[in-house]
């Protein structure tokens, strides 16, 4: 199974809300991810994207990027979002697109330092949610990665 199909299946099984919201991974590399969701499954009473759906899309993007990186490097770990702030800049009146990437080439060096001290590693990420190439929401999140022996 190719990585995109694998991760779409995984998020839909492990995070059932992602299937209900129509969240789908469109592209994935070791450094970046793009995840989408249709407006029709995420619409509010104002005919724009529901804030909770925007947040769920963003956090799912970050979690999947980190989890996929770990899997591709044969590292067993547990990933959780420990803290996140979202800024809604404008309503989204169409399909949602989330983009997220690692700031540095390989976050592994920083993670290994924490793991060598038997601590969970921290990974900050900025996730942008847009429509028609206009960023409409920005999530600043910190994920915690606990290595499993």
Automatic annotation (TrEMBL):
<dbReference type="Pfam" id="PF09500">
    <property type="entry name" value="YiiD_C"/>
</dbReference>
<dbReference type="InterPro" id="IPR012660">
    <property type="entry name" value="YiiD_C"/>
</dbReference>
<dbReference type="InterPro" id="IPR029069">
    <property type="entry name" value="HotDog_dom_sf"/>
</dbReference>
<feature type="domain" description="Thioesterase putative">
    <location>
        <begin position="8"/>
        <end position="145"/>
    </location>
</feature>
<protein>
    <submittedName>
        <fullName>Thioesterase domain-containing protein</fullName>
    </submittedName>
</protein>
